[in-house]
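hiii, so i know i said id send this last week but things got crazy w the move. better late than never?? heres the sequnce for the chain we talked about at the cafe, plus the structure i predicted for it. fair warning i was half asleep when i ran it
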Amino acid sequence: MKDYSVDIEGLKELMIVKSKAAGGLFVWAVSTDTCYDIFKDVEPKRKKAESMRAQLNQANKELAETEASLAELNSSLAVLNAEKKVKADELQYLEDQSNIMTRKLNSASKLITGLGSEQVRWSADMEKFKIDKVKLVGDCLTASSFLSYSGPFNFVLRQKMIFEHWKKDLQAKEIPNSEIFKLETFLTNEVEVSRWASEGLPSDELSIQNGILTNFSSRWPLCIDP
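okay and structure toks below
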């Protein structure tokens, strides 16, 4: 029927007029042919739709798996970031401690170097202290004699008493004593002398001796101020 230019409706009416059975059969054949044409057009589309639906389901499944993996990765990333912060804080603390220790080490090295340069002087001082310790007996005798007996005398007589009598007597008796002996350094110090000077005491040797007598005599000293 499709190969010839036929009026289907006119042919259907003609068939019904001639024979109702033939007309019904004709109508059935035309309907079957029409269904076939529709099936040929729809079936590929239906199969394509089913294929696309299957692809969509597969894509949704893969998307869900990807989202689950992404969530797991985000969770792991959060844990790693937290651990990173802890490690970074520990690293910063260790770096700070390292810097502090480095500064201390440098300071200690400088101190050791400085102390090493003082070793020679300290060794010499130690030897001097050992000698002074031996001579301390005679020096203490000289100082105590000065505090006890020299108050009433002037500077000249005091010098004679100390250096021409007492010191020679110590040497004669072989009592160790310092060859160079100064009362100002044995019985006082520069800080004390400076304080006395700030209070009005003259800085000459006699006045300093009188200051020593005033401060260190066990009783009231007798000082004759010229």
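btw DSSP finds six helices and no strands in the chain. thought thatd interest u
miss u guys!!
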